[in-house]
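Before the break, one more example. Copy the sequence into your notebook; we will annotate it together after we see the structure.
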Amino acid sequence: MVADLQQRYRGVLCLHCRQPIPLSPTVIRRIAELKGQEPNPFRELGSHAFNLRCRACEREGTYAEPNFIDCEGTPRARSFRPRPAPPGIKPPSAFTRAAGN
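Here is what the structure looks like once it is written out:
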């Protein structure tokens, strides 16, 4: 009964920290489209690789279909860190006035 409650998802192991990365719906849809196409010898010469970002270490890697595995459990939630403002852009100030006043 406990095994029935386990969630499974397709993913890859991060090249950097070895934590599982879930495949995005876009990648899953693209793989299904590629499998549904008729065989073409020119298309099969190249491999189908996808860039995925790890949710644990936030590093990106390129993964091909042979790297995909079945993972157990729930995928790690995305962490959103605030990005610093680009140089030259100052935060708004309470003392700023509109032009012409």
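Residues 2-72 form one domain. The two ends are 71 Å apart (CA to CA). Try to locate both features in your own notes.
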